[in-house]
Amino acid sequence: MGIQEMMREYANQRARCAGKSVDELLAITNGNEIEFIQSLEMAIQQKAERVGDDDMTEEEIIVLAIEALEREVNNGGYSQFFVNSSREYTPIIDHALLRIGCSKTAEITKSAIAAAGFQGLAPMALAEALNAYSGADNHELDECDQLYYRAGENIGGKLIDFVKDNKSAIKP
User: Fold this and answer.
1) Using CA atoms, how far apart are residues 63 and 44, in angstroms rounded to an integer?
2) Contact 144, 115 (CB under 8 A)
3) Please, what are the domains in the chain?
């Protein structure tokens, strides 16, 4: 598949997801959990583009935060989560994990935040920690990555349960 074909498929997927309810997204993804979560995330991101972050519900932000953590940590560890745009969710990520029932991963993530040197979660504190961190070799953060991979919490499944339980508050 060439890049132009991939871009067309992405545009088609965005169009299929736009403005769909949780139930509609469940139906069009035929029960495929990965496709459902990706579609839901895409639909919520489109809503954020339309209405702005201030008009997002807590539950919608939780979905975005959890998906950002999963994507980044599984692809490059906590350091990738902290240096990419996903870092915007650092102040709320442990709360988001607790809301979906992943207390073990929330504790690991708190340890990763501390290992990265965050002294606080205000924007300036995050920026200072990221500047100090800037990809330096961090053994503690590597250990957090390994704990995350071995934690055994079904984050995706718990996120889907959370979405189903809170679908009245999730209106992409």
Assistant:
1) 8
2) yes
3) 3-169 (1.20.1420.60)
Q: Residue for token digits 């989560």?
A: 81
* Mean pLDDT computed over 71-90: 90
CA distance to 7, 10, 13, 132, per residue, from 3 (Å): 6, 10, 15, 37
Q: Are 46 and 40 in contact (CB under 8 A)?
A: no
Which H helix or E strand runs over 163?
A: helix 155-165
Under 8 Å between Cβ of 104 and 162? no
CA torsion sign for 51, 56, 60, 65 is: positive
Quick one: tokens of 126? 């995050």
Per-residue pLDDT tens digits for 26-72? 999 988 999 999 999 999 999 999 998 889 999 999 999 999 999 99
What does the alpha-carbon distance between residue 105 and residue 152 come to, in Å, rounded to a whole number?
9
Alpha carbons 37 and 154: distance in angstroms, whole number: 14
CA-nearest of 161, 172, 163, 169 to 63 is 163
pTM for this predicted structure: 0.86
